[in-house]
Amino acid sequence: MKSLLRSNIEKTINQIITDNEFEQFLALMSERTFDKKKFLLEEGTVCNQIYFVENGACYSSITDLKGEKHTVQFAIEGHWISDLYSFFSSKKAIYTLEAIEPLAVLAMNKENFQIACDSMPCFDRFFRILIQNAYVSVQYRLAKTISEEAETRYAEFSKLYPELIQRIPQYLIASYLGVKPQSLSRIRKANSHKK
Amino acid sequence: MKSLLRSNIEKTINQIITDNEFEQFLALMSERTFDKKKFLLEEGTVCNQIYFVENGACYSSITDLKGEKHTVQFAIEGHWISDLYSFFSSKKAIYTLEAIEPLAVLAMNKENFQIACDSMPCFDRFFRILIQNAYVSVQYRLAKTISEEAETRYAEFSKLYPELIQRIPQYLIASYLGVKPQSLSRIRKANSHKK
DNA sequence: TGTATTTCTTAACCTATGTGAATGACAAAG
DNA sequence: CTTTGTCATTCACATAGGTTAAGAAATACA
């Protein structure tokens, strides 16, 4: 049971954990479900949970001064999602988390996060790597956003996450790539001619 | 002595450290200097150090597939800089670190980083916060890059880092903002008319 | 000093993407 | 089965920023 989570942990820290360790960890998480379009977290409230997606899809977004939403991250089965800044600092969240499909997650709150880190060194390591990965991936995305055109970014996204292309509405993918839905539509049309 | 570093640490973790702790920490770092235009780290080698800038200025950059350099971060007195991804993973660096002015840094290598974290809990915390801050700031910059125009980003940069505007060559600031030097020049000209 | 090198500015032109508005295709709700 | 709302597409036009090229200004160096 919950082998998705277990293999996610083992893969991240690149080592096997004991049944006992995993059970301890799992005991610190609780299952929750969200209907499509429901919010896991709303901007302005404090983010007290980090979520591991067991089923379904969701995304985090930030709203700019003009009121436009920008997708920060998608999460489907096997991904973690949260507003790590708010979670660690206990300040108000700047992100919104919303379900795209009916969603089943395992949630861990801050207290249990502390317990996990304090009692099991491998989880301390696990979470440090989680942030590091998040950091590296945003750096990468920023570099791509600055240096590549939308068409190239879309091609790379399609190649990297073919499943998301199927499951995620296009206006959200556009918002992730940093262009308007009309522009993504135009890019897709141009591409379909080339093939 | 080295009060810049000490106050940087205390400010980051939001608590005072003892003379003893600080001396221990300092003993794990070594002083180094670099001439202008010299490299602290070259892309493709492993990054074994994190640097605290005591004097001068430097920057990190990433080179894209077209051979164009994009500035990732500037660091002047009181800032930390490194390729954290390479440092933590021991994989090849994707960034280059280069001195903009004659530079004096305190460097900590990986072994000493481990020692610092293991022997003094407050430094474990310190470095975690350091990554978190780095993560948050890139997220913020990505959001701004996607949602704001270059003119707005430049205005914000000027307001946030007036000192850097004085000290850093404009083509590097342009590269940080994600535009060509000519475009930044155009923006500055347009702004000078408005005032 | 003068000369070379680097950095900044300007200008004319070009292209990718934004804007606004209309239309069609579904899917959800009644 | 109709109505309504959501999402994707298309088009005409506007514009920010890229490109190329040239010269001016600043800085380094001999």
Give an overview of the whole structure.
Two copies of one chain form a homodimer. Chain A is of the alpha+beta class and 195 residues long. Helices cover 52% and strands 23% of the residues of chain A. Chain A contains nine helices and eight strands. Chain A has helices spanning 3-13, 19-27, 84-89, 110-119, 121-147, 150-160, 162-167, 170-177, 181-194; strands at residues 30-34, 39-41, 49-55, 57-63, 69-76, 80-81, 95-99, 103-109. In chain A, the strands form two sheets. Chain A has a four-stranded antiparallel β-sheet. The longest helix of chain A has 27 residues, at 121-147. The radius of gyration of chain A is 18 Å and the shape is globular. The mean pLDDT of chain A is 93. Chain A binds chain B through residues 62, 64-66, 68, 70, 72, 84-85, 88-89, 128, 131-132, 134-136, 138-139, 141-143, 145-148, 178, and chain B through 62, 64-66, 68, 70, 72, 84-85, 88-89, 128, 131-132, 134-136, 138-139, 141-143, 145-148, 178. Chain B binds a DNA duplex (30 and 30 nucleotides) through residues 149-151, 169-171, 179-189.
Write the layout of secondary structure elements.
The structure is a homodimer of 195-residue chains.
Chain A (H helix, E strand, L loop, with lengths): L2 H11 L5 H9 L2 E5 L4 E3 L7 E7 L1 E7 L5 E8 L3 E2 L2 H6 L5 E5 L3 E7 H10 L1 H27 L2 H11 L1 H6 L2 H8 L3 H14 L1
Antiparallel strand pairs in A: 1-8, 2-7, 3-6, 3-8, 4-5, 4-7
Helix pairs in contact in A: 4-5, 8-9
Chain B binds a DNA duplex (30 and 30 nucleotides) through helix 9.
